[in-house]
Amino acid sequence: MKFxxxxxxxxxxxxxxxxxxxxxxxxxxxxGVMLRVADGSLQxxxxxxxxxxxxxxxxxxDADGSALVSGRxxxxxxxxxxxxxVDIAADGAHLELVCGSARFTLPxxxxxxxxxxxEMPASAGTVDAAAFAAAVAQVAVAAxxxxxxxxxxxxxxxxxxxxxxxxxxxxxxxxxxEMRWNPEDPDVSIxxxxxxxxxxxxxxxxxxxxxxxxxxxxxxxxxxxxxxFAGGTRRTTSRLLDGANYPPVRSLFPASHNAEARVTVSTxxxxxxxxALVAERTTPVLLSFSSxxxxxxxxxxxxxxxxxxxxxxxxGDPLTIGFNPQYLIDGLANLGAxxxxxxxxxxxxxxxxSPAGEDGEAVPGYRYLIMPIRVTR
Length: 377
Hints:
9-stranded antiparallel β-sheet
């Protein structure tokens, strides 16, 4: 194997592939990235039996072949190379990498020990790449991070006709995003639970490429399905989580509300961040709404306290409600709108945050539910 490739293209391909490699692989070869050259194209691949990543890069190929090298080491090296073409050649049990006056020799691993990448499932349809990336970011923020509850670490994707819905919850908050997509089958009805981290990393990469993302789904037994995403020259597959007993979380959204507030997102985020400086990790910030506006308060140890007022449009009986400050900031920061609409039932029931349009009304498509923290004053 021998080829020449542009430094930036190589660095991007290796960095994306290496990002999903396991920190402690069950077998050494899973820490590697596969470099395979054929017909003037380089395929950079990674696979850990759960997630596979593959990027195709155009190269000047002198000799076809393949090599398996440490993914994280190669990513660090390619990121640090000077902005010049890179010459790579496999020489026995080593890989020679030359860029300008920089030269690296890396040990290779046995190619024959590397598992075959899974095939992409059948295409289910396509969705706009930029819109998909934005939607995933809005939802993935609410997914759990506790690996002892794997179901909560996923994003549930619901494909019904031309509507694509994504939901995620960590039991303290819930995000729901609905959007249009282009199904292969107009009568499609599929649910899948995708690991949130994998979905978020994939969407972040495919979004800026523009165009459309192809979603591919194969349904097996419970938890045995696979999902694939392809955009540009990149493709990734992931095993699905077992979502057979995923709770009916849509029912958590209140059917009606007794109070409504309209606030400027950027201002409220700044105020919450400032006031929360005195709060302990588990201490909520208190939001007191009235016809006069909003007062945000927090208290910490040693009698440290903070409060700040800001403008807000509020209708309903005066209300004081407590929230985890980071959960509140996460919801506000991902609205994608300058104005937020908050709906309340009372101080002890979940509140719902929605983006508001120029007319002040809620923009359909995204809702972020956040559980209040009971406080005594």
